[in-house]
Please model this.
Amino acid sequence: MTEGHPTMAGNRTRGSRHRARRLLFGLVLFGALATVLALLGPGLVSGLRTPDGSLVLRPECVVETPDGEVGLDREAARRATTAVALLARGMAAPDTTGMDPAVLQRLAEGPSEDAGPVLACRGSAASDLHEQQAGAGGLTPRAEELRTAMAEVFGEQSLGGFAPGGVDQGHGADSTHYDGRAIDIFFRPVTEETRRQGWILAHWLVAHAEDLDIQFVIFDDRFWSARSSRGQWRDYEAPAPGNEILRHLDHVHVDVLGGSPG
Model:
C-alpha cells in the first residue's frame, strides 16, 4: 500500500485548519455584531415601513405622525416646512401635492398632547467653509443670509442676540453671539400657542440647515446639532438659574457654522 505524499497531506491539514479558523472568526464576529445591535437597539439601523410593509433605510428627515414615522428627503422637508410657515401667515405656499396630509398637519399643529418637536433631519456640517467676520450689522455674511431667508418665509420677527458693532455681554463665555454667528427669535409670552409657533420655525431651520450652514438650533429645552449623524433632538441642559431665557423657552436660538481660517 502506498501512502499519500506527506507534503500534500500537510497542505490539506493546514487548509482544513485555516477554514476552521475562518469559520470560527466569522461566528465570533457575527455574535459580536448581534450583541452590539441588541445593546444599542433598533435605532442604530432604524428603518421605516412603507405602505406595503417593506423596510427601507432611514431617510434624511423623519416626521412623527399619529400613525408612525414618515420619511422625507431633504427637499420634501424643506418644501413641507416652508408650506406650513407660509400657510400660517395666509400666504401662497409651495405645491405639496402627493405629500402625506398627516405630515403637514403634524408640522402645523405639533403633538396633540403638548408642543414639541416632530421633525428631525440628519446633520450635515460643511467642513470647507472659510471663517467670516461680523459686518456692520453685527452678523457674519452667513448669519445675515440666514436672517434674510427667515424674513422671506416668516416675515417680520422679533430678533435679538446681535447688534451693530457686535455684542460682548449677556451670553455664555463661548457664545456664538459674540462672533456674530447667532440669532435669537423671540416668541413671547411663553404659552402653548407661542411654543407651537416656535416649533414651526425650529423645524424649518432644521430642514434648511444644510443649505444655510446652520450649526445649532435650540428651543424649548431641546437642541439639534448639524454635527449629529442621526440628527435627533436632544435634551438641553440650561445653566443655572434655568429661567425661561436660559432654557430657551421664549426664543429659538440658531447659529451658523464658523468655518476655518483661510
User: Anything to note?
Assistant: Residues 6-40 form the longest helix (35 residues). The first strand starts at residue 47 and ends at 49.
